[in-house]
Amino acid sequence: MKPVFLIAINFAREQRWPMLTLLLWVLLLAFLGLVSDIHRQREDLLFVFKLDAVYVSAFSIFFGGCAIYNERRSRRILGVLSKAVGRQQYLSGLVLGVTMACAVYCFALGLTGSWTLGGAGFPVSRVWFLMICLVAACALAGTVALMFSTFLNPFFAAGATAVVLGLPALAGQFLGPQWGHVIPVWELGATVVNSSFDSPGTASWFPIVLAAAETLAFWLLSARIFSYVDIAVAVE
Amino acid sequence: MPIVLEFDNVTKEYRSFASNRRLCALDGFSLTVEAGEIFGFLGPNGAGKSTAIHLAMGFMRATSGSGRLLGEPFGHPATRRRVGFLAESVALYHRPAERLVRFYGALNGMGGTDLEKRAREVLEIVGLQDHANRNAGKFSRGMLQRVGLAQAIVNDPDLLILDEPTSALDPLSRVMVRELLLGARNAGKTVFLSSHLLSEVELICDRVAVLHRGRLVRLGRTADLLRAGGQTEIVVRAVAATHFDGATAHDGVVSFRVPARAQRAALEKVWNLGGEVLSVNPLRRSLEELFLEVTADPKSPASKGVQ
Hints:
heterodimer, A: mainly alpha, 9 helices, 0% strand, B: alpha/beta, Dna Ligase, domain 1, 2 domains, four-stranded antiparallel β-sheet, 31% helix
């Protein structure tokens, strides 16, 4: 497990600049909480909170889709995989790294949300439940993107990920709500986006557990595909 | 001697699905490297050297054939714990050199004070002890290559696989690397060295293989390969140069070359003509001459000269 954690921490560290940029949006929420009347502006605060949540979901796809590509293009992957690190461990590290990067962001957003939204009457426990939903959605979205990036370039990997994550939502609209559960990123995102002060929503752990299970399944699939990939050839 | 690296009829093709083109980087490549030797792996650009190394490291899969690294099939992660690898273009994360070496050591299962001590030790070996806390992202190419070497040897590997380890180094650093490799051999380690610096290879390698267009065109002990095709130079006096083909005369001293098998007859001819033999020396060519000879002619049969 040690190499997995090392690769994960290394990956999260390598993403520090996009992460810091992303955290500026959390700072914006904190700034609004400081300068505005949080009771009168509570809908605006909730809107910024949801916006921040949507951004991290998009960034998880970006993180997952670019991870292998960047490592291969820079040839740093050779240094890591020349050690006693299996490809499955390497991918585990990347999945964990994407999840860690998103979890750090969600923690910061949770703290800021608890202070601003909590102060405006939104249940603090609900804020943290939404953050758990968000981390689960990011982990799954990042893993799906990582899976596609094992054989596609980041642009196509992101597109393919959007299709895979969006299709169950579309199917849910037209074929029945049970289809929305197939890949629950959309459902988890909707839990966050549809929250309001009037109806914060109920806590259903089923999509979170499903997302965790599917993250594992997509990780296994990506490890299988990645074991056949020639990593030393040019990626351009 | 036990075999530490073995390629058995390995073929590697790169396929372009867009243009339906195939490029054969390695074609029926077989080679064995024994424990305790420094093995030089030569070839022009595009010959397939890096492909062979990447196959051995498990970075890619062979189209056909197989191979073993330290007794295990290529791509076995635990085996790489005993291997040190330096890629052709060193690419490292941007962080202080010592932390970087510790990171790579930790990936190999090392840890604690042993790793800290070893990281400082290897940085000293490559002459970077004064730069241990400097960010590798700000290093020159030569310094990066030295950090790359440090991370390759941090786990005290049984087998070192080095792809162009001295390409960016100054002469002083090259001497350091040479001593490092000779020290490794003296300690019973094996070095698999791919390099274009033929003078370096000639100096330190026990055996050499030359790869050309994906095929092995020369393999043998360095000293044997450098004997110039069995030619001997004979220097005599008191004999006219006209008696020997291609002979040159200077101040009454005549020198000429004959194949080794014709040496005895030539000497007898000199004595019969009343001449005096001054010296008889087997001719030695440089590795560069051998390299140019075996790689210059694209029509040369690939198997020619393989010993």
